[in-house]
Amino acid sequence: MRRYPECIDFHAFHDLNLFVLRHEWLADFFGVIEVAAPIVLASATVLLWLLARPGSDRKWKLASTAALASAALGLLVNQLIADVWDRARPFQDHSGVHTWVARSHDPSFPSDHASAAFAIAFAVLFFDRVAGILFIVAAALIAVGRVVVGVHYPGDVVAGALVGLACAVVVCKLALPLLRSLVRLVERVTDPLVAPVWRRLPPR
Question: What confidence tens digit (pLDDT) does each residue in 161-204 have?
Fold first, then answer.
């Protein structure tokens, strides 16, 4: 017999799945989001580093480094959780579930997409509020999309968001001295490469 919280999770998923079946434009929209948004989010994270003028404030370089480290930590934490609770995907446990993207058969809980996206977003938020809010909006679209296209329960993406937040806190608050050292080391390589481009731009 299923535990009560899991029943609530499935019923919420089931109701949304039927709603999307009747409004397939939602599936089409979020299907595009599921393909494009993770690529855009990852590219934007790297772009933060490149947008930091050599010799200026390291805020965006720290944000970029912390975001990538937080995402990596989030995916590692997810693997550890999945080893304890190997929750099947909705379409594996229930008949009649509709999906609109390729079916993955790795553990459903927590959502890797949500964990990585929110780890990046919250890490950026710790260093830049405006950029962080934009990243959080993108992360939320990715997380919601995982449920809309039928490959995750709502609880999977909520748990993923919490994992992402926790990992961003750990990286940004506890590992900040290490991040600063890493940024100083890497910028010795990248700054000379981007400096010619910045010299052609007017000073801020």
Answer: 999 999 999 999 999 999 999 999 998 888 787 777 766 766 65
Percentages helix, strand, coil for the chain (3-state, rounded to 5) are: 75, 0, 25
Q: Could you tell me the residue ranges of all domains in the chain?
A: 4-190
The three-class DSSP label of residue 126 is helix
In whole angstroms, give the CA distance from residue 57 to residue 184: 12
**CA of residue 174 relative to chain centroid, distance:** 20
Rg (C-alpha) for the chain, rounded Å, is: 19
What does the CA dihedral 141, 144, 147, 152 come to, rounded to 10 degrees? 90
Dihedral, CA of residue 179, residue 181, residue 183 and residue 185, to nearest 10: -150
CATH 1.10.8.100, domain 4-190, yes or no: no
CB atoms within 10 A of CB 95: 5
pLDDT per residue as tens digits for the range 75-125: 999 999 999 988 889 988 888 888 888 888 888 899 999 999 999 999 999
